[in-house]
Amino acid sequence: MSAPLPEILHQLNADMREDPDWGAVAAYIPELGRIDPAQFGIAVATADGALHAAGDADTAFSVQSITKVFTLAIALGRAGDHLWKRVGREPSGRAFNSIVQLEAEGGRPRNPFINAGAIVVTDQVLTGCEPRETLGEIMQFVRTAASDDNIHINETVATSENVHGHRNYALAHFLASTGNLNNSPEKTLGTYFHHCAIEMSVKQLAMAGRFLIDSPQLPRMILTQRIRRLNALMMTCGHYDGSGDFAYRVGIPAKSGVGGGILAVVPGVASVAVWSPGLNRYGNSLKGTEAMARLARIMGWSVF
Ligand code: GLU
User: Fold this and answer.
1) Cβ–ligand 1 contact at 97 (below 6 Å)
2) Residues spanned by the domain of 214
3) Is 29 a member of any domain?
4) Is 240 a catalytic residue?
5) Is there a catalytic annotation at residue 258?
6) pLDDT number for residue 3
């Protein structure tokens, strides 16, 4: 029998601080490049309403691509299966910001979690709305999911990414050239950069992830069938070209962001958020991945 969860988290926090290799922060967004990599926090929100945490669990960080899960939930709620005409559901096997695959496949991104796919999803949510309304809707979804109104967008990070987001502009313009963008690249990317710049602590993120647990003990925000599908996509595509490795090592659905966060779901049991800003070669948190692998092993949480 394993030790109680709070004890396990405190031990993990101590273990993660021992190895001096913290990985490298995402310098391509200069505002994220300034963050001290030597930080680590972890939080677990369980289906029965408990929240346990250890380490830098109250420090707000840039959740970046993790917001793609929330925007996808909103887009599917709006467009339903029509969304899949515009974006696929297969792992990409390519870097999160790859351009070559998008051109080779005629402007239909492989999945909603690589940048090109998330730009299409943002465009879908934006259709018929102004960016302010769309961002308001995304913020409301995230705050409701977390039961916390103290969650905000960091404007400095959004601006930093906009100024340096040449690859994302290339993707958006290519999407527009193939007719797979309803709004202008500027309007779509302005909205995309802003939702990527949402900041949360691991405690807030673990709470926000509860809507994916699918437990009768929790308030329902989306259909059960949709929860299963989001989890399937997180498992197969949530870590970019490192998704297979994450599934092999950890074995639970999860989505990472270049801010160093990971949101993982143990179906029926818990939502886990981990953060350490230094990344591995796939752009996923180095220590966050290691901590998730150890936690899943100790708790027997792999779905396999
Ligand atoms: N906003 C980031 C980008 O578009 C998100 C990437 C990520 O978190 O993986 O490059």
Assistant:
1) yes
2) 5-62+202-220+227-299
3) yes
4) yes
5) yes
6) 84
